[in-house]
């Protein structure tokens, strides 16, 4: 009997590696209900598609830490405050599925907008002051849309753990706060930024950069890395000004903001001794492409 049980488990693991593309909530829930009854842990990696090696690192970690992994591939309209940005956002589902299958994901959830939002989502999420600074200031409504879709995915999937990249540093902090305040029974796992070999933070938006802009965009991470060394012998205000001047001098870049904040509260700090966890968060435009990045000064 033990032999047959072992054979069944081996067969099951082989079968689950044959990734399934699912487009409806009911079908995904039916699949996961069976697995949950069998005691399987479920990892969720929410994405908007246009996947790259950064996403792959999240999925691989989720696969290593859970029995089954679900990856959502959905461009969420409610988090875009710029309709042109929504229209131009890359959509590469076929390529995404190939990457996810190679990473070991069990399910790709790629629903239509109508499946997720059969009627307008009027829920309002407010986590001030976390969501009123930086991205919250410059992209009104963005984090409400993020919380709408992420909370829906949590309710649909009911994951054991959910994985998010630290490149979207403010988003990660807000999702942690949402989980604390909402009755979600799951663990939020933050994963380090993945960069190109030259330091550029991986982003789906990088696909919109021309070859020349790709070189220009590299000045963002170069400024951040250089500022870490600069900060060792300069004040926080001087370091902030240093990064701002680096971007101002860089061809093709336009700074939207650079803030040095407490890594937990996201509130600005004015002295290196103000906190034991200090992060620099930046957003800059390279042409029409809006890019974000961050660097940890103290942790």
Automatic annotation (TrEMBL):
Entry's localization field: Cytoplasm
Its EC number(s): 6.3.2.1
Top-level class of the enzyme under EC nomenclature: ligase
Positions bound to beta-alanine: 79
UniProt keyword annotations, A-Z: ATP-binding, Cytoplasm, Ligase, Nucleotide-binding, Pantothenate biosynthesis
Top-level taxon of the source organism: Bacteria
Pathway membership, UniProt: Cofactor biosynthesis; (R)-pantothenate biosynthesis; (R)-pantothenate from (R)-pantoate and beta-alanine: step 1/1
Residue numbers annotated as active site: 55
Keyword Metal-binding among record annotations: no
Quaternary context: Homodimer.
Protein name as annotated: Pantothenate synthetase
Source organism (scientific name): Phocaeicola coprophilus DSM 18228 = JCM 13818
